[in-house]
Every structure is written in structure tokens, then in C-alpha cells.
UniProtKB/TrEMBL annotation:
Family according to the record: Belongs to the resistance-nodulation-cell division (RND) (TC 2.A.6) family. MmpL subfamily.
Pfam families registered for this protein in UniProt: MMPL
Places the protein is found: Cell membrane
Record-linked SUPFAM superfamilies: Multidrug efflux transporter AcrB transmembrane domain (SSF82866)
Membrane topology according to the record: Multi-pass membrane protein
Organism: Micromonospora coriariae
PROSITE patterns: SSD
Domain SSD: 206-337, 555-685
TM annotation in the entry: 12-31, 180-200, 207-227, 239-262, 283-309, 315-343, 370-390, 527-546, 553-573, 585-605, 635-656, 662-687
Annotated signal sequence range: none
Name under which the protein is recorded: Putative drug exporter of the RND superfamily
Gene Ontology CC: plasma membrane
Start and end residues of each stretch annotated as Disordered: 697-717
Length: 717
């Protein structure tokens, strides 16, 4: 099949390229923009069955004046003394003056209750921020306008003020975010071009992935937008960035798979057309299987209960599908026309070096597979043990620089009020049938929940315009986004609040902490479903590729072990050595996307090469040695580029970006350099012919030609 495809693409290369140009132009010009289906609506992030979502919906209906977000102006004396009655009056004047300025997208300017901290250290003004979406840029401008007006109003008053809250924090760290992602984008291009220049010593080969991925990204975004319109799907604003990373990751992998094998066939004496036909024949099945495994892994995200992951899966699957078609048609067509000029101006590709690093590593694996398998396996298990100490961290603010205005204002706020003042837990009481709540019911409920476990302060109850609903805001003793607070809300606090509801009423717990508590439950549920299902489907794809039931089992086990080792290594570094309270709660699913899904490519490339060498008549140990020698440089180059891209995030001054950068980088390094180059080939050599049971995948097809390849290595250029 792939031989026929190779002959077709190479024989009609100009037609294939022309067809691609026309198809790309048609898709780009006729499909909608990705922004047309982008949504920041977080209501669908969690299913409606979760209590925090029900509480949010009830709050939006019962308190329609509730703002999209809140900015908290924290006022204190410049000399650090307690606020005087005159100071408190001045803060009231400040609130009225700011309100009179009619700053766009602001409302409320409430100075209570309670506005003054019990110790008189600070006084607050709650400002509502209103916009169609919580990430609307207009909210950022509103905070900037507030800050610009506060200074002159407090001049010569002896008071200072800072604006805290999520929007204010984003304003303070916007440049840090933008710079971090700009650096990653630039580093990606530099790494791809730089490393491929080192490997092939050719600007043409170095630019090929950048140009191809740029074209594929434009096509993919159009197709994703069209699919979103057709099936009424919305996507997160993060999708564009994730698409870019995924396409550069797999696109570079597949192009390197092709170029390494193409160079190998040219060295063996094939003409440029025959070399590409053989390359597609040999590598086409590997790329197809690898892409199939990644597509399956992404589509399994449809099983997630978290809405963001459910919409992410199909979009990424489309991207990988387009990259697969590109790798089997457009790239072979272009390279077959360029021939040896794809490696211009270097002539080193013509020489097959001896005694290279990859040759020595292959010899080690072939001669001592038991030692190599044991050493690499022990390393992975030791790192995986770190998972036992894993704690999820939901506190993004703690990872930001602490010298910004929003961070200092938040610290002042939490010193004066209970720790949960920045994100109150919203407790709603409702009859559920429209009948009004009595004052006695509301007051008794408010008094009871004020004594609930972990509550530091309770604000006076608020009545809705709907007489059947009331709300009490609780300020927790714990940081509202800490693991302690999340566990408290999920267990003891919710139980106490539900028990406090008078007969004939129902209580719901909402707010930031409750949302994170439900996200925690949903995330745990999703991972427990997604990982086993993905593992089973990837095993099925491997079984079809290898015609074996044994090899897929230990390959999937290796992938899952690598996932655990990656997460464990991150726990050791950030929770252990750096003493952080946990690692970002998003990390497991990020590792699933970039380590489990994409890292599987390296396993498939290596195991396919091991099978190919076995079919050439090599004994298991010899096949492992040759396989590592020839597939090792490809795996190393692809892994180094992807790992290096993410490692750049370690330079960002934001903790969760550092965690993400380290985790994905070390995960790819373990996938490429430990699992694929040592553990899998050594284990395959030990198992021998039984690895291919019940088929005969390691036997050369009857009458099949024996075509020993020339050595290949990163070092030769």
C-alpha cells in the first residue's frame, strides 16, 4: 500500500504539489476564522451536574446585577498605623469620587459590609467589573483607569491604595505572559532551524519544517473553524497556541523520520526517486501508525467531563490528520524533486561514518540487554515513585512575582481579613419552588453557616429580588485556592452547609473554591477514564502495526510508566527541592497531550525499526543493536528539538510555566532517550521472537528483498 502511494506521489510530484496549493488556498479563503468559534464562557467547563455550576447559575439569575469580575481597592495608611475615623471617611469619599467618574465597565463601588478590617489595618472598596466575557480586554483597561484615578484622589491624604483581584493580577503580569510565550515561539524556530542545520548542514532541510508547519497551521485552523461551525462547537482561546506546539512537535518528528531514511537510501546508492519510494514504503506505515495513535489519544478527550478538554480533542485530531496527509504526500513530493539538493550545500551526507555514538549505544543494548533494561526500568520506576507525593496546586497567584501592586494589595487584604477575603465562598439558600424565604429561615441559616468548619468570617446575608433566594458570603480561614481550602469545601463545609438548610429549602455552595473542588473531582475522574481507554486503543493500533499481541502490552506499559516518571520527577523538583505546595492541577492533562500522545511516536518508530531489522534476518540482540544505531539519531534529534522548546519556559518568572516547561521537557527526554532508545529495544531483545507472538512480524516476507541500510548518525551531518 505505502509502496504504491510512494510511486504515485513521486511519479506525479508536480501534480501533488499543485493540488496541495489549490486545496490550501480554497480552505484558507473559504473557511471561517478560528476566532468565530472561540469562547471564554467557563459555564460549560464543568458539567451542570456539579454543585458549583448550579450555584453559579442560581446566582446569575437571582442576582443579575452581579459583576463579571471584581476589583478590590485596598486602602491603608502610608505610615502603617491603624485607620482613623477621618481616614475611613476619606475612603468613602474616594469611592463616591471614583463612581462619579463613570469609568467604563465598572459599577458598585461598595464600601461594605464589612469594609474595614477588624484590626483597622485596611479598608476596602469592592468594584464590579462588567463585560461580556471574563477575559474581555476592556476589563484590563478598567483596572488601569482605576489605578490612574486613585493616586490623585489620595494625594496628601496619608493613605495609599492598591488594586487586587484576578483581573488586576493579569494586568500586572500581562507582559510577563506575553514575553514568555514570545520567547517560546522564537526559541522553537531557532531550535528547529539550528538543530536541523547541525544535523544535516543544510538551510533547505532546516527551513522545511518551519514552512510546512506554517502552511499546515493555516489549513488546520480553517478546518477546525469549519467543523466548529458545522457541529456548533466552541474552543478555548488557548487552542491556537496548543495547535502550534502540537504541529511543530509532530511535524518536525515526521519530517525527520522521512529525511533520515531518505538520506540513508541515497547513501545506499538509490536514485532520488527510488530513494523516496522506499522511504515512503518503510516510514509511511510508521508515520501512519504514530499519527493514528496520537489522533486516538486526542479523540479520547471527548470522554472528558471537563468541557475544555472535550473541545480540544477533535481540534487536535484534525491537526494531526492534516499533518499525516502532508507527511505522506506534500513532503515526499517536494523532497523527491529536490533530491540530494535538500541537503545542500553539505556533501557529508554521502559518507557513512564508522564507530559513531549511536553505533556504540546500539552495541551496548545488543550485547547487554538485561543490564540496559534493568537500569532504564529502575530509573523510570524510581522517578514514578514521586507520584505518591503528588499534590495539585490551584493557586496561580503564588507563582507570579510578588512585588506587583496586585500581589502587595492581596497580602494587605489577607492580613486584615480572613484568608478567603479575596475569593469568598458563595452559599445560596433557595426554596426551589418559588415560595419566599422567611427572615427567620435566612437569619437562622446565616448564623449556622457562620459556624461551619473553616469559616473565618461570614458577611451579612443578602436577599435577592427573587424572594425565594438568599446569599451568604463566607470568608475561609485558608487561602481559598489552597489544597486545604478545596478539601474543606468538598467535604466538611459542604456537608455542614447542606445540613444547615431549614426544612423545605436547599443550600448550594459556589464560588472559586467550590469550582476548583469540582474541577479537582472532574479531573481525577477524567484521568481515570482517559488513560486506560487511550492505552487500550493505542495498544490496538500497535497490534495492527506489529501483528503482535505481546509487544503492544509492554510498549503501552512503558508509555504509562514514562507518564508516571515524568510527573514524579516534577514532584521531586517542585514539591521536594523547591518546597512548593504542589504542582499545577493542569499538569497531568498537559503531560497526557505532549508526553503520552506525542511521545508514543518515538516508541513506534523504534519498534518498527526493530521489526524491520528482524525481518532482514538479524537475531533479536543484533536487531536491537542495529535498530538503535539507525533509529536512535532520528529519535534523539526529534526529542531534543521538542524538549528544548519546552525547556525555554524554565526562564519564565512564573511558577506554573516553569513547571510545565520542566515537566514536558523531562517527559520528552525520558520518552526519547530512556524509554525508546534503551528500555524498549533492550526488552524486545530479551523477549526475542516471542515479542512478535502470535504473528510472524519478525520474519522476512517470502521472496522479500534483503536491503541492509547504511549507518546513520547525528554526528555525521
Amino acid at each position: 500500500m505505502f509502496e504504491r502511494l510512494g510511486r504515485f506521489v513521486v511519479g506525479r510530484a508536480w501534480w501533488v504539489i499543485a493540488g496541495w496549493v489549490l486545496a490550501a488556498a480554497a480552505i484558507i479563503l473559504t473557511t471561517p476564522s478560528l476566532s468565530d468559534i472561540t469562547s471564554a464562557d467557563q459555564e460549560s467547563f464543568l458539567p451542570r451536574s456539579y454543585e458549583s455550576v448550579q450555584a453559579t447559575e442560581l446566582g446569575q439569575k437571582a442576582f443579575p446585577q452581579q459583576a463579571t469580575a471584581t476589583a478590590i481597592i485596598v486602602v491603608k495608611r502610608a505610615d502603617g498605623q491603624k485607620l482613623t475615623p477621618a481616614d475611613e471617611a476619606k475612603v468613602g469619599q474616594l469611592a463616591q469620587s471614583l463612581k462619579g467618574k463613570n469609568i467604563p465597565h465598572t459599577s458598585g463601588y461598595l464600601t461594605g459590609p464589612p469594609a474595614v478590617a477588624p484590626d483597622k489595618s485596611v479598608q476596602i472598596i469592592n468594584v464590579g467589573l462588567d463585560a461580556p466575557a471574563p477575559d474581555d480586554p476592556a476589563l484590563l483597561d478598567a483596572v488601569r483607569d482605576l489605578r490612574a484615578d486613585i493616586g490623585p484622589e489620595l494625594a496628601n491624604s496619608g493613605l495609599t491604595a492598591g488594586v487586587a483581584g484576578d483581573v488586576a493580577s493579569f494586568v500586572d503580569n500581562e507582559d510577563t505572559f506575553n514575553n514568555a510565550f514570545a520567547v517560546v515561539g522564537i526559541a522553537t524556530i531557532i531550535l528547529i532551524i539550528g538543530l536541523i542545520l547541525i544535523i544535516f548542514r543544510s538551510p533547505i532541510a532546516a527551513l522545511l519544517p518551519v514552512v510546512v508547519v506554517g502552511v499546515v497551521l493555516s489549513i488546520t485552523t480553517g478546518l477546525v473553524a469549519a467543523a466548529g461551525k458545522a457541529f456548533d462547537l466552541s474552543v478555548s482561546q488557548d487552542l491556537q497556541t496548543i495547535l502550534l506546539i502540537v504541529l511543530f512537535g509532530i511535524g518536525t518528528d515526521y519530517i525527520l523520520f522521512l529525511l533520515f531514511r531518505y538520506r540513508e537510501r541515497l547513501r545506499a546508492g538509490d536514485d532520488k526517486r527510488t530513494a523516496m519510494i522506499v522511504t515512503v514504503q518503510r516510514v509511511g506505515e510508521v508515520i501512519t501508525s504514530a499519527a493514528g495513535a496520537v489522533i486516538v489519544a486526542f479523540l479520547v478527550l471527548l470522554l472528558a467531563s471537563l468541557g475544555f478538554f472535550g473541545s480540544l480533542g477533535p481540534a487536535l485530531a484534525i491537526a494531526v490528520g492534516v499533518m499525516l496527509i502532508t507527511s505522506l504526500t506534500l513532503i515526499p513530493a517536494v523532497v523527491s524533486l529536490l533530491g540530494r539538493y535538500v541537503f545542500w550545500p553539505s556533501k557529508a551526507w554521502q559518507r557513512a561514518p564508522k564507530a559513531t555514538i549511536s553505533h556504540r549505544l546500539g552495541t551496548l543494548v545488543g550485547r547487554r540487554p538485561a543490564l540496559v533494561a534493568a537500569a532504564s526500568g529502575v530509573l523510570l520506576v524510581a522517578l514514578a515513585a514521586g507520584v505518591l507525593g503528588y499534590k495539585a496546586d490551584y493557586d496561580f497567584s503564588a507563582g507570579f512575582p510578588q512585588d506587583t501592586e496586585s500581589a502587595k494589595a492581596a497580602q494587605d487584604l489577607q492580613r486584615g481579613f480572613a484568608a478567603g477575603a479575596l475569593a469568598p465562598t458563595e452559599v445560596y439558600l433557595t426554596t426551589g419552588n418559588g415560595s419566599p424565604l422567611t427572615e427567620q429561615q435566612v437569619n437562622d441559616f446565616a448564623a449556622a453557616v457562620a459556624k461551619a468548619p473553616g469559616v473565618g468570617q461570614a458577611q451579612p446575608p443578602e436577599r435577592s429580588t427573587d424572594p425565594s433566594v438568599a446569599r451568604v458570603n463566607l470568608l475561609l480561614n485558608e487561602n481559598p485556592v489552597s489544597n486545604e481550602a478545596i478539601t474543606l469545601v468538598r467535604e466538611d463545609l459542604r456537608d455542614a452547609v447542606h445540613a444547615a438548610a431549614p426544612p423545605g429549602t436547599r443550600a448550594l455552595v459556589g464560588g472559586t473554591t467550590a469550582i476548583f473542588a469540582d474541577i479537582n473531582s472532574a479531573n481525577n475522574r477524567d484521568l481515570s477514564v482517559i488513560l486506560p481507554v487511550a492505552a487500550g486503543l493505542i495498544a490496538l493500533i500497535l497490534a495492527l502495526l506489529l501483528r503482535s499481541l505481546v509487544a503492544p502490552i509492554y510498549l503501552v506499559i512503558a508509555v504509562l510508566l514514562n507518564f508516571a516518571a515524568t510527573l514524579g520527577a516534577t514532584v521531586y523538583l517542585f514539591q521536594g527541592l523547591r518546597g512548593e505546595p504542589g504542582v499545577t492541577f493542569q499538569l497531568p492533562i498537559i503531560l497526557y497531550l505532549f508526553v503520552v500522545a506525542i511521545g508514543t511516536d518515538y516508541n513506534i518508530l523504534m519498534i518498527a525499526r526493530l521489526r524491520e531489522e528482524a525481518r532482514e534476518g538479524n537475531a533479536p540482540h543484533e536487531a536491537a543493536a542495529i535498530g538503535v544505531e539507525h533509529a536512535g539519531p532520528t529519535v534523539a534529534a526529534a526529542g531534543l528539538i521538542l524538549a528544548g522548546t519546552f525547556a525555554v519556559l524554565l526562564l519564565a518568572p512564573i511558577s506554573f510555566l516553569q513547571q510545565m516547561g520542566f515537566a514536558v521537557a523531562i517527559g520528552i527526554v525520558l520518552s526519547a532517550f530512556v524509554m525508546s532508545m534503551f528500555f524498549v529495544p533492550a526488552l524486545t531483545a530479551l523477549i526475542g521472537h516471542k515479542a512478535w507472538w502470535p504473528g510472524h512480524g519478525d520474519e522476512r516476507p517470502a521472496g522479500g528483498p534483503r536491503t541492509p541500510p547504511e549507518p546513520a548518525t547525528v554526528a555525521n551531518g
